[in-house]
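Job type: complex structure
Entries:
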Amino acid sequence: MTEPLTTAPSPGVDDGVVPDNGPGQATRGLWADAWTELRGRPRFWIAAALIVLLLLMALAPSLFTSVDPTVGLLERSREPPGPDAVFGYDLQGRDVYARTIYGAAPSLAVGFLATFGTVVVGSLAGLLAGYSQGWPDSLLSRIGEIFAGLPFVLGGIVILTSFNKPGQIVGAGQLVFQVVLTIVVLTWPVAMRIMRAAAIETSQQDYVKAAKALGAGPFRVVLRHILPNTLAPVLVYGAIQFGVFIGAEATLSFLGIGLRDPVVSWGVMISEARDRVQDIPWALFFPAGFLVITVLAFVMMGDAVRDALDPRGR
Amino acid sequence: MSQPILSVRDLVKHFPVTRGVLFRKTVGHVRAVDGVSLDLHPGETLGVVGESGCGKSTLAQVLMRLTPPTSGTATFEGEDLFAKRGAALTAWRRDMQIVLQDPYTSLNPRKTVGDIVGEPFDIHPEVAPKGDRRRRVQELLEVVGLNPEHIRRYPHQFSGGQRQRVGIARALALRPKVIVCDEPVSALDVSIQAQVLNLLSDLQREFGLAYLFIAHDLGVVRHLCDRVAVMYLGSIVETGTAEEIYGRASHPYTQALLSSVPVPDPSLRGRRAAIRLEGDVPSPADPPSGCRFRTRCPKAAAICAQDPPALEVRPSTDHPAACHFAEPPHLVRAD
Amino acid sequence: MAPLLEVDDLRVEFGRGRETASVLNGVSYHVDEGETLAVLGESGSGKSVTAQTVMGILDTPPGRITGGSVRFRGEELLGADPERRRLLRGESMAMIFQDALSALNPVYSVGFQIAEQFRFRRGMSRKDAMVKAAEMLDLVKIPNAKQRVKEYPHQFSGGMRQRAMIAMSLALDPELLIADEPTTALDVTVQAQIMELLDELRRERGMGLILITHDLGVVAEVADRIAVMYAGRIVEHTDAASLYAHPAHPYTRGLMDSVPRVDDVAGAPLRPIPGLPPSLSAIPDGCPFHPRCAHAVDVCTDEVPALRELGSGHQAACHFAERFVAEGPDRPTTHEVVSR
């Protein structure tokens, strides 16, 4: 989806040159222009740097710490941050810094996959519903309402307990997959509604009429005319939901049906620490801080991408 | 006279009015277009005038095959227009194009002008070989009076009039024989409107285009059109040459319409015949019986509620009008 | 006696820094009781911003009044107590807009919205106020006013809504009515009804009427005096008859040549004004119209022409105004009066 949909840049076009609308350059189209635009924005680079750092943390936690995040020594319980452990120790005497680093991978995996799944499933359904506006719209909207009507916690319990027997030991990857699936199943209708509303509005625009009058088929109309003009609201929704989904994972963990020991996630850490905020504030503060920074980075990235995709903002 | 390039007979387009969420139930029909017949000859301009809700834009949509007709026929160069499918339909689209009203919504804001004007060539690659497209797009921009170097700009970087020129370039790209102009200048300022109207005239002469020119502005239609059809609530109430309509209108609606248009000449103030219509246009979902215009007509009589008048030439007139009492206007001269 | 409304050298800017748009660059006009002043201009000419500044409803920011004065019956309004200005709105001056649908609140009945003014500003009871509201609808010639007073805006047609807006603006009997493109969204047959109604109400009530429009035809039919605006300035100002008979500014002349008329001879080519109106953040030096003017010479690019008196109340901001007045309009003035 990110590849240029229009004429590819000709070999003569130098990527490093700011477009000057000169006659010697080929038409590049929205995506190429958006990329040029994005590169000039500090906001994009800050967000990108943060995201790369977080991804590095998730993929290679051992680069950041050599401490085992699951080892707890009770004599170190509730020790505040100090030279040994910069983030202090939690109730069970585990190193909060190491746990925060190791917690990045499952948290990011849940946040990223759930956002991706929700946005993709919801957008496709929304595009189909909004563009067709016939029976597929009625059908998808009704199905969406059924899923959106399920309370999240109840839905989560039903889905996750039907996967796993109580007490059953499940691998971390499988558990992440199940949690992501639960979140996607229960939240895609929101993304669908956003996309559907935008698609209905866009498909009534005159440029869609003009394209149809030129003989454009449905794929061309949807990909070139509707999608680029409907992406912005879904993108913003996705960026905000990223943090919400990490929180949702924490809720499921808190109920004992989400990720659990020995898997470390920010959600798990936050839900463990929240009863003892006064007692050991650092056990809550650090994972929560990382969560906030992550969400911020993605919101910034979403914002920057949205602005870059809107030629009117340039 | 030459054979018409586009010929429409008894065209009807009804939109169902539906209620209900789960089970949609049709509770009525909006009779947007209700029995329209017209002929368009090569190289001429046929004006379709009418007020909002008269169905003139729906007519354009149906003729462009953007929405299917409820009934009626249309032929393009002798071939059934509504029977065209697949490759034949795509090929026909090269011959008939549309220019839309709103220069702000008719161009995709996220595409460059080069992409917008070049899109016809993407859809119909046989028209221009790939390597040649850029040059063709720049030629088109030049033809409509835009700087060909602005190919990389986005629509928001242009003014309303310039955008409308982009829309015209897009319609012109495939060298059509017919262009449907759906209110092409109504969103533009007076001084810009004149530029675009002159451009349309020039293009017609240069490329031998036929225009189906849809507008509500009677002055604009007078200026550009050879023949005129006046629409009211989905039907044509009067048709004839521009001279016939503007000089000797015989339908009371046309007469009222013409007398309502303000003329920029204060010396005529109070000296023009004023026919003021009462009230507003009835809803096309529930049109009056008999003659559609009778509820606002100063001449309405009992027969008007029963018999819908046919669009035909009557003894005292020289061109067709759909009125039982069609007659030339009384001569009102300024004294 | 002071005129009803006097606008003097009004200046308004939008934005700051390099992006500053000079929207009004010294606008002056006046309206007397019982007369119609038409403010004619294309989009971006500043005609609506002037009206909003007069009414005190200009959004600041982004707008900024940088100079000039607005006097109502001699009383300075710019810088006046906001409470005083609020009282004047409705009581002394009122405004109607192009889009009557968005100017009416969809969740209240039309009658309720008119009655509100009688209730809150005249202290009437709900019942009495509704009776007055029905009278107002009757005044603007809405049939069955007593029944329709309970209906909602969406149940009214476009023309009816504009009538309801007029009724609402006249409820407190203002002395000045500003109509901002009141018929632009309406069909021509309905436009004729509304313009007739406005003219009749002005005559009956002795109101001052400022009619803001881009339509040279509408102006010709109702205006006493006309002010033509271009790029935030008044470029020509005179009575209706002499504007059309002896247009003095090339812009006015260009506009007249641009309009296709129903009484034209078919096939007469239009003579459009070339080019585009200037960006308000980069108004050219000298005469703002010079880049589009066929008669421009050196002095036009250097000196801003002042709006000056040409005699008998005809004012124009062009260095060569006298020459154009002498020439008369480009179009023939006598038109075949098409019998209809």
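Summary: The first helix of chain C runs from residue 47 to 55. Chains C and A do not touch (no CB pair under 8 Å).
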